[in-house]
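idk why but the lab printer keeps eating my pages so im just putting this in chat instead. protein + guanosine-5'-diphosphate:
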Amino acid sequence: MMDENGILFILSGPSGVGKGTVRKELFKRADDLAYSISMTTRERRAGEKDGVDYFYKTNEEFEQLIADNQLLEYAQFVNNYYGTPRKYVEDTLAAGKDVFLEIEVQGAMQVKENFPEGVFIFLFPPSLEELKTRITSRGTESQNAVLKRLKEARGEIEMMDAYDYVVVNDDVDHAVRKVQSIIQSEHCRRERIAKQYKRLLEDDEL
Ligand SMILES: Nc1nc2c(ncn2[C@@H]2O[C@H](COP(=O)(O)OP(=O)(O)O)[C@@H](O)[C@H]2O)c(=O)[nH]1
Ligand SMILES: Nc1ncnc2c1ncn2[C@@H]1O[C@H](COP(=O)(O)OP(=O)(O)O)[C@@H](O)[C@H]1O
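predcted complex ->
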């Protein structure tokens, strides 16, 4: 491989668009990608495991992680904290492995400030109507919360320009394939840049 460092991929998008669903399906198919398990203060749901789905923390523990600068980014989402462990991401990239983050949009913008070379993918709903159906059908939100999330989604969609790629999540299989092609393309692109760079260094006239 030409790249010494792995590539950081960030999948983000409005709540309910299908980020978790697409990420889980992607990881069933991809074996050379490391998923960064997030820290959260939200309660563990039935069937979730500490250290697999999330690292579950108390508010105090989470605020200590923030104070110690151990998070690459963090955000408050529906009254809970969510954040990405800095060390895991940096060490894994330095070891030459790609890292994949699945995070909400405020966090994604913080990552962009620290890691502008990351590859930012925005998952887009086929329509606002379909987004509403997905949020509602998940059944985890009250009617009020659904409306609040939809309102936020409008603002989030306006941030789309800050992303490198937009993937419409019409169908999970299609969306996962598109994310896989983005990963492949990025490797080809960086390999090309690395070759050009090497040629430049070998040029005697310089
Ligand atoms: N900023 C940030 N968001 C995260 C992180 N981990 C998960 N999220 C996002 O937090 C939101 C809520 O996640 P979760 O509580 O698992 O609920 P659900 O995905 O809505 O069922 C989702 O949009 C996730 O993408 C993180 O480390 N940082
Ligand atoms: N392509 C899709 N077509 C139909 N339903 C989907 C699709 N992707 C996700 N969903 C459904 O939409 C809901 C929200 O998905 P989820 O992955 O929890 O979203 P997010 O992580 O972005 O909040 C879930 O009920 C999920 O099964």
